[in-house]
Each structure stands twice: as C-alpha cells, then as structure tokens.
Amino acid sequence: MMDETLEEDPQREALEQVISLLTPLRQHRQASAERAHRQAQVELKSMLDHLSETRAS
C-alpha cells in the first residue's frame, strides 16, 4: 500500500506544477482580453459620436 502512494506522487507533483503554471497564464489572457474589449468599446463609441455629429451637420 505504501509503495503505491509513492509511485503516484511524482505524477501528482507534475500535475500540480502544470496547474500552477497555467493558472496565471489564463488570468493574464483574460485580463488582456478585457482590456481589448474595453478599448473596442471606447473606439466604437467615438465612431458613433462622430457619425451622429456628421449626420447633425
């Protein structure tokens, strides 16, 4: 029983290492996607504002 636990341990350690590396990457990607989304909203609003100014004149 004790040997079985020792055999599985390196796999578990490797898995935990991969997870700890991937988590910040996913958070970073999400943050940069949110920034891009906000930027797109700002640009869209300025285009719409410009369009309504053009139509008004």
Topology (elements, then pairings):
Blueprint: H1 2-56
Q: Could you explain how this protein is built, in words?
A:
- The protein has 57 residues and is an all-alpha fold.
- The chain has a domain at 24-57.
- The chain contains one helix and no strands.
- It has one helix at 2-56.
- The chain is rod-shaped and about 80 Å long.
Describe the structure using short key phrases.
57 residues, mainly alpha, rod-shaped, HrpO
Shape: rod-shaped
Mean pLDDT: 88
Spatial gap, N to C terminus:
83 Å
Largest sheet: none
Rg: 25 Å
SS element count, helices: 1
Order of helices and strands: H
**Beta content:** under 5%
Number of beta-strand segments:
0
Question: Which regions are unreliable across 5 or more consecutive residues at pLDDT < 50?
Answer: none
| Secondary structure: helix percent | over 70%
Report a brief summary of the structure.
With 57 residues, this protein is mainly alpha-helical. It has a domain at 24-57. Helix content is 96%, strand content 0%.
